[in-house]
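Protocol step 4 of 5: obtain the predicted structure for the target chain.
Materials: sequence only (see below). No template structures provided, no constraints applied. The aim of this step is simply to have a reference model before the mutagenesis design in step 5. Sequence pasted as it appears in the construct record:
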Amino acid sequence: MTPEATAREFVQRLRRCADRARMAATLSYYPSAQENLGVSTPRMRALVREYRPRLKAQSPGQVLALVRAILDQNTLEGRQAAYELLAGHRPAMASLKARDVRQLGRGIDNWASVDGFCCTIAGQAWRNGVLSDRELERWSRSRSRWWRRAALVATVPLNVKSRGGKGDSARTLAQCERLAGDHDDMVAKALSWALRELIRWDRKGVEAFLARHDKRLARRVVREVKRKLETGRKSG
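Step 4 output (structure tokens):
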């Protein structure tokens, strides 16, 4: 089968997992120009696990062609699944160039797509040297709230052990510095997340950042990060 045919088959399988109640409930949760199929994450990941063995013998180019073809189908769940299929194919991940990563990010227009892209693809590529620090700096200056959010969420794989992170205070705080005064809610939430994940590696650095930017930061950021510092939890 061609990548396009496999992509159509894959998305059709996703459609069979659709839950109308979930779709209705999530339309306002992450509004998007992408089609919302109403497929739960566990069901989407079950389908990804089913397809991964079929990709083992395929070349990186073939896998990337399939991933792009799934993205072209323009569905929320298909985008998430495409990223996870790619992440599960080590040769394809190792073959990525900066232009490939940028292309894979085209169309991110909601927090779920940004987070899937950054935690699964872009943050890994940055940590591994595929994306430069200058590239991430450009994202932080974007007019798009979603690329500015991406500039922060991409720090998560630097610091979360389950994502392969071993701590990177310098690059994390550099991105946070650039967006400290951004009060767009989607960006502020990502800033809070980035700082909270850094606490385990550089608690003093996070405390100093809060003190330095207290008057510039969105109150959500100050509240959530201080609570994490004091209680170990985001809320409650």
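Step 4 remarks: Residues 1-95 form one domain. The radius of gyration is 18 Å.
Proceed to step 5.
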